[in-house]
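I hope you will forgive my troubling you with a question about protein structure. I am sending you one protein, given as its amino acid sequence and as whole-number tokens for its backbone shapes. Thank you for your consideration; the sequence and its tokens are set out here:
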Amino acid sequence: MATWLYRIGEAAARRAWAVILTWVLIVAGVAGAYTAFHGKLSNTFTMPGTQTQQLSDELAQRFPSANRGSGQIILTTGDGTALTEEQKQAFSAALSALPSEVPSVDAVTDPFTTTSKLAEAKTQLDEAHAKIDAAPSQMEDGKKQLNAAASQLEDGMKQIADNEKKLDDSQAQISAGRKQLASAQKQLDDAQAQLKDGYAQAEAAGSPAAMMEQLNAQQAQLTEQQNVLNQQRDTLTESQKQVDAGRAEIASKKDELAEGQKKLDEQRNQLQKTESELPAQREQLERQQKLYDFASGYRMVSEDQSTAIATVSFKKKIYEVPSAELQKVMSDIESANLHGATVQFDANLSESALGGGSHTGEVAGMVIAFIVLMVMLGTLVAAGLPILMSLVGVVVGVLGTLSLSSVVQMSSTAYTLGLMLGLAVGIDYSLFILNRYRTNLLDGMPKVQAIALANGTSGNAVIFAASTVIIALVALNVTGIPFLGVMGNAAAFCVVVAALIAVTLTPAVLSLAGTKIMSKKLWASIDTPQKIAERRVQDAERTEKPNGWLRLVLARPLLTLVVGTLALLAVAAPMSQMRLGLPDASNYPSDSAAYKSYALVKDKFGEGMSAPLVAVAHTPANMSEEQAQQAQIDIASAVKERGGANVQAVVPGGMTDDRTLMIFQVIPAHSASSVETEELVHELRAVTVPVQGSEVSLGIAGQTSGNIDVSEVLAQKLPLYLGVVMGLSFLVLILVFRSIMVPLVASVGFLFSVLASFGAVVSIYQLGFMSSLFGVDHPGPVLSFLPTLLIGILFGLAMDYQMFLVTGMREAYVHGKDAATAIVSGYNHAVRVVVAAAIIMISVFGGFIFADSTMIRPMGFGLAFGVLVDAFIVRMTLTPAIMALLGDKAWWMPKWLDRLTPNMDVEGAALSEKMSEKIQHERESAAADSGSKLGSE
């Protein structure tokens, strides 16, 4: 490897412009790829296999509306006064226009319309309750009225019967009268016949006057009797008409009574039906009342009427909505004339729509790095070269990573981590090669040879160091956590690019830098062979004398070890209280839009309104509507009962058409990152409810539960990953140092560095110690994936410092120096560049402590503090102290293992010796040729 890198360095130095042009083309290529293929980044983390993700996948198919992105818009007067009708109408109008103005908006929930509908529903329920409560009394009144009507019908029937009897009596009298009339008429007819015979006899007798007078008198009497009979007949006829009219009236009355009886029977049946249905109606009303009571716990307008929350639902997940459309949602609402009211937007809208944000901290870190390089290297060109290399690497690495963001779900943290590492290692890797190049020049080596040898030796170390970081980062994929694997791969790619630039572009630029790579004073110190030889002697003497900090460490190695260990344990102690989680709006800076909206919602509605949970129940098939409603009530009641004070509201959110899947929105009483909400999620997942003879379990989904699931899985994976990394470090260091104790010390030291870093992060970002100094306004759980990332990244960096410091010790020991002298020689040989590299790392990582993202801040601090502890305490303090205590035992290795272990020439010592012999031979030959010329003269 060293020889190969030597040749690459030599070729790059001789064909500098070709190498530079190649990298220019690479930069242009990745820039074009980014422009063409980059996609939307996300800060939503998912975990396949978790309950949240399984339910989310199911909801996406069976209940799509419950699995889409949403954001909240908060309208407020700001001074606690009630919103006016004018303000409400203006806000509602602005909301109603969003679906037509913004393509990704699916629907908008107007708080005032919703509140009005809830009020109407309450009025209807109250009226229904009043009717149900009055129904028994009304039915009793109805029964009384029916009984009275029945009594009236009975009286009517009796009257008809009496009238019929009277009519029958009248009819009998009429019939008897008619018989009498018929008899009288017969007698009268007989008398008339006799009178007729009398007239005939009288006529036959000559109509004597006396006889005729007597006959006329009889005729007059008969006529009078006939008239009387006729009058009686007319009277009977009139009576008959009256009887017939009475019978007709009775028949009509009977029809009326029959119709009345029919109606009475119908009313009685209806009353009986109503009475029998009343319990079911009461139960139905009670169900509706309970469902309303559950829904009424979810307020969209504050009690003082000063604040309202509108929900904007999108057609896709929030991270899939283009930033421009999110920005349009906000700008459209902000530009509306709300008549003095103001609006705020939750984190889903305000944070998702943000661009890159401010990079003041990163710039400050780079400035500090430049100052360190200036102090160390002495020229602007030398100080600027590593920074230029790191910037080129970052451009290629970050843009190359983002080019895949359209096909790979990627968080903004992934590329920021790549940016952070790319800057840090890019500067350090180029610095290592640059420093070795300067050393070679100071040793009198020609420029091209000096560049090539620097690339073959320090470049080899750079490749090894980069490999350890890359392996640790790529190993994040073995956790089985996709987003963490993407982060690791993105960061590893940036490290690969940084290493490639260090061993190709750096040699090319060095060859063009000429004399500007060192100060004139340094060039003057090597302008003659004698000065070079004197410098070598001085350097050799200086490297074998302990100075400064090392002298203090070696003077009291045991005390140094005890004090250093106790200090690290004290710093690490708070990690026992570490809680993992993902930041929510409650952890954002106080001046951020996300926190302001969160604080307003917390004040007016309760902090749980910003952290809703989605409860999902799989219910039995073939349920009726009433059974489904009862199931909703039973499940919601169980949620409320199990959650207790930690549940602010439970809102039934609907069910599938076949009623086999129900969803509920659960509003916690606390924030998403609180201990109480985490406990609530576990409590609700333990809920079982009997539904139609089946035990129904409750599942919890949503962003809040998803964050909890991610944190728990990461916490479970953390010990395994730490064990894998420590085991890997131990094996790698055995290969490098051919020792048992040195790798053991290095691995344990790495563990102490990691634990101290964890402890410091917990102290500041979770417990709030000195939080104001680091801009932490609202401490909360530690970023869930931060410990895993710290382990992976600090492992690689720790191995770098271990290698650069201790390989020099090993080389000195192998070449015959005693253990104590080897410690001093190796330490002095590398300490200057390691200190500079560590300070640069700390500066670059520290620049991210005040980044806009609440995820990046603890990451920057953890890495900066981890490098500080590992470089200055573990590697430069405890490691020399332990090795001084161990003496020769530090380099002990079983013979059988020594035979099996391949020789890992990490710093290219063999190549360096070979080149030194070659150069020495060339110098001797040149001196001999010079002497022969002088002799001949």
Remarks:
- Residues 933-937 have pLDDT under 50 and may be disordered.
- The two ends are 47 Å apart (CA to CA).
